Amino acid sequence: MTTISFSLVPCATGDHDGIERLLDVCFGLGRRTKTSYRLREGEEAVPGLSFLARTEKVALAGVISYWRVFIGERSVPALLLGPLAVHPNLQGQGIGRALMQHTLALAGNRGERLVILVGDEPYYARVGFQKVPEGRLVMPGYVDPHRLLYLELVEGALDDAVGLVLSPSRRLQRQESAALAIPHQAYEREQQGKRDQRAEQREPFNFFDPVAVVGLKAEPA
Length: 221
Fold this sequence. Notes:
Elements (H helix, E strand, L loop, with lengths): L6 E4 L5 H12 L7 H6 L10 E4 L7 E10 L4 E11 L8 H15 L4 E5 L2 H4 L5 E2 L5 E2 L9 E5 L10 E4 L1 H34 L20
């Protein structure tokens, strides 16, 4: 196979339609039903980490992007890699690996600590990805646990990442729901306290007090 030369350039707004066509060719129209797309839906890719591969004959030979996610109760920030796509006629030329190596280096230089993705381990292991320990991360939908991978850009970055993986908007929704629940719970506690106080202030019922028993008439012994 003849080796081709290619260049990597940042994605621009005008590339959107071409990227969508490439993704359809690589993954099919059903790609939007995958769990990873639930985390991307309504979100914007992380600025500065979306890149294209271009060749002399193919203006859009490959593409990669990353998305912000938060993990678990501690909201550990991480990057979700994907989609990564290479034109079917140009696969096996090192384009995908080059896109990953370039952007992962940029992410590390920017202070990112952890990257996760859903994909084939043998392919992504070439740049250091490995399987997430089973049961550690929960995706918003079914994912084959053998395809849930991670890469630590900082050693130990996975240690605090345990639980549900959320997009920024869904994380915000959960926070707002929790914030609304706190005043409601406080109000309920306040009302219950008032009810308890009123109950304590009532005079105890005296069964032997004839006045306290309606219709009870004292009879001589």
